[in-house]
Automatic annotation (TrEMBL):
Transmembrane segments: 27-48, 54-72, 109-134, 154-177, 189-215, 235-258, 279-301, 321-339, 351-373, 413-438, 459-478, 484-506, 538-558
Listed Pfam families: AA_permease_2
Protein name: APC family permease
Entry keyword annotation includes Thylakoid: no
Topology with respect to the bilayer: Multi-pass membrane protein
Top-level lineage group: Bacteria
Record localization: Cell membrane
Keywords for the protein's UniProt record, in alphabetical order: Cell membrane, Membrane, Transmembrane, Transmembrane helix
Length: 560
């Protein structure tokens, strides 16, 4: 497919531009919101996988750390670009097909953006849990706007106190972002210290006090249920392996997220050195948190004890599921009860309990700001490069991509009305795994197509190889484990990811008359120049075909 360039001056849609104002430490503190993502799904993974849940987190963060070195290398190739790993990967794929590049960027945005709605929803729930009892009218009132039961049982768009309070928190995050990357980084330093402290305490205190019970971390067998709906230790048959795949699938959304540290390459004072340092130290922080917090959380709470047995009708069908305490309780699965449970692990009385919950609310705000900073810049760069509508390339006097931020905010206000945040997370992660696959393969594509380019950081070849293998491992987890989180998760995620097609076609063929912006042609190195080409030949297409086969085979093997 040929790619045409526009002629004439490469004038951006707006005069403003992103500014080089931070070092790797600034990006580290902005990315320090990633460890708080453990709050989003720690309960859901424990209640779904069972006793091996703590191991799921450790294995997943190891995967994420290995993959990060591929991202660090490709980010160093393009120090003048913002928007994160998907933008750098898009440069590899664009020569092999116009749609492949925007697909990667789009999936990256759809993966990161819902952190805003899920995080603000959980934070709002934590605030309400401190101020009001669970049965208070403000916690039970709800107005259903649209029934989405056709998509997933019990799913709906609704208005409640969580929505309105969550929307207010999103506006606070927006106000902080509006001041630019430098001021955002300063706020994140303060929030980071305050918000990471409770996660460290929650991880370390129970280990030091001996409250982590080895019995709660085993037996190392997937969760299963008997005919009466009672939880028992399962077997490592295909059903058990499917559960494990589902756990690793959903954990990736949190544990791989520190790759956002490379999202600010265009704003680093010294991108050659800052890029690698930012992702390395962010990764080490995540390894620490994603290891000790799940172990302590599960080691203290355990899976839980049966509170109310399941109700079974005459035909043997379970009409009302069994009710458990511990990790298997409903509020832990949804995430709304995680903060209270974690605060209880410190054993400091009511005042300390509330202080810990408040600090966890700040941890979620940290994650929201991290996501808004990264996802809005992905929209911004995608607009500059000609993938998304032109209006998204606007920045204000502080160098903040405000129109992209408003778009992020509006999209997430809709998601905030959703009644099932875990399902949103799972749909988002379908997109994330697809982005991850394209970008890990982009590392070896850049090696082949641009062998002589300067690489401020060049990962060992064996790490690039391991990253490529993990790209296909992640697709296997996607195919096998996505529908653990709802029967329509995989298909819905694929449909949502394909929504970029009409968006890109309108921008490219209607707005830009079939031509990429001149600046993008130069930046993406699409013009004929020394040292870059399509030397990979058919290999990228073979990788795509193999990836599709992996998803289909994994989906066929899955047992629910």
């Amino acid at each position: 497919m040929s790619i045409a360039a526009t002629t004439g001056a490469a004038a951006p849609p707006e005069a403003g531009t992103l500014q080089r104002k931070i070092s790797w430490t600034g990006a580290f503190w902005i990315a320090s919101g990633v460890p708080a993502l453990v709050l989003f799904s720690i309960g859901a993974i424990g209640a779904t996988v069972g006793a091996p849940a703590w191991f799921v987190w450790i294995l997943s963060i190891i995967f994420g750390f290995i993959q990060a070195f591929s991202y660090a290398e490709i980010a160093g190739l393009f120090p003048h670009k913002s928007g994160g790993a998907s933008v750098y990967g898009a440069i590899a794929w664009v020569r092999y097909g116009k749609l492949l590049a925007p697909f990667s960027v789009w999936c990256n945005w759809l993966a990161w953006s819902p952190v805003l709605s899920i995080g603000s929803g959980l934070a709002a729930g934590y605030v309400l849990s401190i101020l009001f009892p669970a049965d208070a009218a403000i916690n039970t009132w709800q107005l259903t706007l649209v029934d989405l039961g056709w998509l997933k049982s019990g799913l709906a768009l609704r208005l409640n106190a969580t929505f309105f309070l969550g929307a207010a928190l999103l506006l606070v995050a927006f106000a902080i972002q509006h001041r630019g990357i430098s001021q955002t980084a300063k706020v994140q330093v303060v929030l980071g210290v305050v918000a990471l402290l409770p996660l460290v305490l929650i991880g370390l205190v129970p280990l030091l006090t001996g409250d982590v019970l080895a019995a709660n971390l085993g037996p190392f067998a997937p969760l299963a249920k008997d005919e009466a709906g009672k939880v028992i230790a399962g077997s490592w048959n295909m059903a058990g392996i499917t559960l494990m795949a589902g756990g690793l699938f959903i954990a990736a959304w949190s544990t791989y997220g520190f790759e956002t540290a490379v999202c600010y390459t265009r704003e680093f004072k010294d991108p050659k050195t800052d890029t690698f340092k930012a992702i390395l130290y962010s990764g080490l922080l995540c390894i620490f948190v994603f290891t000790i917090v799940p172990i302590s959380f599960q080691g203290v709470l355990g899976l839980g004890q049966l509170v109310t047995p399941a109700v079974v009708d005459a035909s043997g069908t379970v009409t009302t599921p069994a009710v458990y305490d511990g990790i298997l309780s409903a509020d832990i699965y949804s995430g709304m009860g995680v903060a209270s449970a974690m605060a209880g692990m410190i054993k400091g009385g009511p005042i300390v309990h509330n202080v810990i919950v408040v600090m966890l609310i700040l941890a979620l705000m940290l994650a929201i700001i991290t996501s808004m900073a990264g996802s809005s810049r992905t929209l911004y760069q995608a607009s500059v490069d000609g993938w998304l509508p032109k209006y998204l390339s606007h920045v204000n006097e502080n160098g903040a991509p405000t129109k992209a931020m408003w778009t992020d905010l509006g999209f997430n206000l809709i998601l905030l009305m959703m009644s099932d945040y875990v399902f949103i997370l799972a749909i988002s992660n379908v997109c994330y795994i697809l982005f991850n696959f394209l970008n890990l393969n982009a590392a070896w594509m850049h090696r082949i197509d641009r062998p002589n380019w300067e690489r401020p950081f060049k990962a060992p070849t064996w790490l690039i190889g391991m990253g490529t293998v993990l790209a296909f491992v992640n697709l296997f987890l996607l195919g096998m484990g996505a529908d653990i989180w709802g029967a329509g998760t995989l298909v819905t995620g694929l449909v949502v990811s394909a929504a970029i097609i009409p968006v890109f076609l309108f921008r490219h063929y209607v707005t830009d008359k079939g031509q990429f912006p001149a600046a993008m042609m130069e930046d993406m190195h699409l013009k004929s120049e020394t040292g870059a080409g399509t030397r990979a030949g058919l290999l990228p297409y073979l990788a795509l075909a193999l990836g599709a086969v992996v998803i289909i085979v994994a989906r066929t093997l899955a047992v629910y």
